[in-house]
Description:
By secondary structure, the protein is an alpha+beta fold. The protein folds into two domains: about 5-175, Thiolase/Chalcone synthase (Peroxisomal Thiolase, Chain A, domain 1, 3-Layer(aba) Sandwich); about 175-185 and about 215-325, Thiolase/Chalcone synthase (Peroxisomal Thiolase, Chain A, domain 1, 3-Layer(aba) Sandwich). Helix content is about 30%, strand content about 25%. α6 packs parallel to α7. Coenzyme A binds near residues 151, 155, 216 and 283.
Amino acid sequence: MPAVQITGIGAIAPSQVVTNDDLASVVATSDEWIASRTGIRQRHILRPDESLLDLAVQAAQEALVRAGRSALDIDLLILATSTPEDLFGSATRLQKELGAVRAVGMDLTAACSGFVFAVATGSQFIRTGTFKTVLIVAADGLSRWTNWEDRTTCILFGDGAGAVVLEAGETEGILGFELRSDGSGVHQLTIESQRQAVDLPSSFAVARSQYQHIYMNGREVYRFAVEAVPDLIEKTLAIHNVVPSAVKGYFLHQANQRILDAVANRLRIPKESIASNIARYGNTSSASVPLILEEWVKADRLQPGELFVMAGFGAGLSWGVILARWGRI
Ligand code: COA
């Protein structure tokens, strides 16, 4: 069975920066409240004339360059997003923009677990020998679905995109993964579609769907995250006989610094091994794991052969953990 390696990574956020003070002019909040409850100081937000897909293209191109691959090498392209610019999916548009004419493209929706679920999915096609080169792109523009009058949610989210190239190789990069879903918590975090009857001069009845703003029960999602995520990390590490301290870096979905700190306490590892850039980006949904992983790679904080963990969690409820070994970049 071929091994799966991560051979390239790219990430990008929009240039427009919105600070906590900027938000304090829109809703009743303060830098002190946001920073102390979440760790967030600023986030990057798409301007009205910017496209999420353009960010996805840039992240993907950077990952391909770092992997030493061209778009023509891609067999499969998975776009992890909950905010496609087309409800039918945006993967084939991305395929077109990249010129990845050989690739099969599909969208994968798993909210803030999207990147982890997509890497796990893509790696299976390599392991079975179906495909050799898989491009995973995670891109979300939650600012477009935010209620800017709701101070409990609008302070949390930012926009961004990240990508990795997965390739068949000889040394194992993706050592294992565990994925979970719990639909009993689906109502805790939603962007629901509401139906409205359409008045037609007809003998049949139809409705039109319209998506609403983000709704979140913050306390419940927090409770879920601080229990489920460290639990699954411990299980995944135990399956592979790895102790938490043997892992160089933990790249967790960046939702709240307090969640990251709680995971560090639970695993009894130094806070510094849980990577964090939430202060600068906020919660970028599926993009948050590749955004922070790319920072560590660029800064040479992760060396070939070192173990690392990626974990996503969020709406669904969904959560997933990947144990990996850094390879050539
Ligand atoms: N600025 C100032 N005050 C705010 C505020 C804001 N932006 N948002 C809420 N408040 C107020 C509330 O109205 C409430 O006031 P009250 O006590 O007078 O009713 C008070 O602050 C406490 O609100 P609460 O919701 O209990 O805060 P919290 O400590 O639970 O923090 C979150 C809220 C959202 C930061 C926290 O619940 C969280 O991070 N949850 C997890 C979110 C998450 O991970 N989501 C993504 C998963 S992908």
